[in-house]
Design goal:
The chain is about 75% helix and about 0% strand. The protein is mostly helical. The longest helix is centred in the N-terminal third of the chain and has 31 residues, at about 1-30. It starts with a helix and ends in a 7-residue tail after the last helix.
Length: about 300
């Protein structure tokens, strides 16, 4: 009877554990698909207040189910969105008026991006467990091992590259992070090779910003090439390419007329035309208006 009782107790425990995992997976699947709900909203303030709860819920669920690919990518995407839209842009907008606040915001943006990068890296490691170490040694050779034919690889490559890239952008005075720029470039190059049209040109839009990420001169030819292709793929649905090109090329060139034209093009994008881009377009247009209001800070 004791053995029967033990077996029954063990079975109940295993059953409860299985039910718990099923529940976590079910909630996780729903959260993994919730990104479009945030991205299609037109109220940045509402999203800035709602997103932290969703992110902390993802943190909790991933602690219990650490290999859930959908939740890992949702966490990477969510933390990157929060960092870019609600920390990095406010840091940029305050840098002429409040140096201490800018420094604190940039440090926070860096930390949030590194958290996002860790989640994206873990998602990538599900299929390529040795890739992180190989990236540090030889980025180009490492990404060459990523196979064709798996659609989720492109998304994972993008979020891994973008999270690390934005962390580097927020911490230009950290040589250890800046030295990882070749990793970002290799990840992005492989994603472009797999599907350069992914998310209506999001890879090319990121590549524009990356062209100005190093400590040397901006690669204007690369920025121009990616800008043209991003516009073709977006077909007027994204404000991001105009902003990225203005920041990377027009400001360093001190081309005020081109800069103004790019901001006007960003403001002309219909935010309701592509619902999944609505939030980023609304935020981008807010930043474009701020640029135009403060244009004398950027041009002699």
């Amino acid at each position: 009877m004791r053995n029967v009782g033990f077996v029954l107790s063990a079975s109940l425990a295993l059953g409860a554990c299985s039910i718990q995992h099923m529940a976590i997976n079910s909630v996780g699947d729903a959260l993994a698909e919730s990104g479009s709900v945030f991205q299609s909203d037109d109220d940045p303030v509402l999203i800035s207040e709602a997103l932290p709860f969703s992110l902390k819920l993802l943190d909790s669920l991933l602690a219990a189910q650490p290999d859930h690919r959908g939740m890992l990518l949702a966490a990477a995407r969510g933390y990157l969105l929060y960092s870019y839209a609600f920390v990095s842009i406010p840091a940029e907008e305050s840098r002429f008026t409040d140096i201490e606040r800018t420094r604190a915001l940039r440090a926070r943006a860096r930390n949030l991006c590194l958290r996002a990068h860790e989640y994206a890296r873990r998602a990538l490691a599900l299929d390529y467990p040795a890739l992180a170490a190989e990236l540090a040694a030889d980025p180009a050779a490492a990404v060459a091992t990523i196979e064709d034919g798996r659609p989720h690889d492109v998304a994972t490559l993008y979020w891994t590259a973008a999270t690390l890239g934005l962390a580097i952008s927020a911490s230009r005075n950290e040589p250890a992070l800046l030295a990882r720029l070749p990793e970002v470039e290799a990840l992005l190059d492989r994603a472009l090779a797999l599907d350069e049209s992914w998310e209506q040109g999001a890879l090319h839009e990121f590549a524009i910003s990356l062209a100005g990420a190093g400590t040397g001169p901006v690669d204007e030819q690369a920025a121009e090439t990616h800008y043209r292709r991003a516009l073709e793929l977006a077909a007027g649905t994204r404000a991001g390419p105009y902003l990225a090109y203005a920041e990377v090329v027009a400001i360093p060139r001190q081309d005020r007329e081109r800069f103004t034209g790019l901001m006007e093009q960003a403001l002309a994008v219909d935010v309701n035309r592509e619902p999944d881009q609505r939030l980023l377009n609304v935020i981008g247009q807010q930043h474009a208006r701020w640029y135009l209001e403060n244009i004398d800070e950027f041009f002699l």
